[in-house]
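FORM 7B: Structural annotation worksheet

SECTION A. Query
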Amino acid sequence: MQSLTFISWNVNGIRSIDKKEALRWVDDEKIDFLALQEIKAEEHQIPDTLFMRKFRQLCVSSSHKKGQSGVALFTDIEPEFCGVCPEVDILDEGRINEFHFGEIAFFNVYFPNGKRNAERLEYKMAFYDRFLDYIEDLRKKGKSIIVCGDVNTAHKAIDLARPEANEDTSGFLPIEREWMDRFVACGYIDTFRYIHGDEPDRYSWWSMRTRARERNVGWRIDYFFVSEDLKEKIVDAEILDDITGSDHCPVKLVLAL
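SECTION B. Predicted structure
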């Protein structure tokens, strides 16, 4: 049995993160999967100076709208299948890498944000439902599931610094949190809470407009979930809040597989 290390990070622009040299730490870490969200680039625009390490596999899903969204997955593991999941990402916004290896289906997802208007909130909720239906079908076919990314919702009051002030804000609306409840009830484990329990004041996103990170006024909206059959394989889950360069920080999962 070996351990696999997964890193997920919303980089808020992969070319911007390259200019800051904010991914150079990858060279010093054991990382089997590096999953990035909101890369805001097409594959040919991804800099080759992000880090010195050369991963053998790069899977990219880019938005049809240039300079928006986009996800990228770096790994040395050969996929049995790698796709962009158009059944869920129906607007072609570059939101999903679907990567199958062995009996596992791994998803790197940049879930929609519902703050812009009611229409986008409606789209976000429909995206949530399509995604859950899709991975549930894979589970019925015998796949174990790993999901990482920017979910754009803080699940519980402990997952943001000011819950009462944000009860009417998309990202903490009852309808969004109820979907998270349903997702977990279907048998998906929030790996950070599995390891750390109700540890407070742990966040993965901070507003850049208000210097919120300095005061740790944040939200935990970046997650690793695993299907229940992988629960006993969880070795570690962490929020890497010492790493800067984006308004998000990376999150980490180690599984014994």
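SECTION C. Observations
The chain has a mean pLDDT of 97. Residues 3-256 form a domain with the Deoxyribonuclease I; Chain A fold (CATH 3.60.10.10).

SECTION D. Sign-off
Analyst initials: ____
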